[in-house]
Amino acid sequence: MAAPPAGLPSREFLMDIFQRVDKDRSGTITANELQVALSNGTWKPFNPETIRLMIAMFDKQNTGKINFEDFGHLWKYVTDWQNCFRSFDRDQSGNIDKNEFTTALTTFGYRLSEGTIDILMKKFDHYGKGTILFDDFIQACVMLLNLTNAFRQLDTDQDGTITIHYDQFLNIVFSTKV
Ligand SMILES: [Ca+2]
Ligand SMILES: [Ca+2]
């Protein structure tokens, strides 16, 4: 039996979780199965956009499903995000408020104005409570990362400014995986 990739638990451990998530025993995990698994213990359905994002990230064969070979990486991804989320949720309220979000963004290396942080809070605060939940936090961070990478590719001299045409702008917005 091949050794698990670095940082992953044993194959037995992962297989046990995989089989519990794969409710219909088809050998692959669909977006619906993943959503049910990640919503366990909460009353709110997991953000479907975040599910779509995660499936697309780890579905190497582009089938829209996750097989067991891809599952270890997905599992690690979710676990890493859970640890990240908990470490920024200073008051252990189970959500991220604006102060905690600001700290997270600074720690990730972003330098954003308060106005931009307010816009992000508003966009990802799906329940209008001034806080961001786990699934929306992942979506916010992944979107920010993807858009930042797209910007950086054009900002060849790294001065934080780019000049682009309207057509290029639309190209970035619609071709970036967000
Ligand atoms: Ca299945
Ligand atoms: Ca909190």
From TrEMBL:
Taxonomic lineage: Eukaryota, Metazoa, Ecdysozoa, Arthropoda, Hexapoda
Name of the protein in its database record: EF-hand domain-containing protein
GO molecular-function term, one example from the UniProt record: calcium ion binding
InterPro entries for this protein: EF-hand-dom_pair, EF_Hand_1_Ca_BS, EF_hand_dom, Peflin/Sorcin_CaBP
Alphabetic keyword roster: Calcium, Cytoplasm, Metal-binding, Repeat
GO CC list: cytoplasm; organelle
Gene3D superfamilies in the cross-refs: EF-hand
PANTHER family on file: PEFLIN, PROGRAMMED CELL DEATH PROTEIN 6
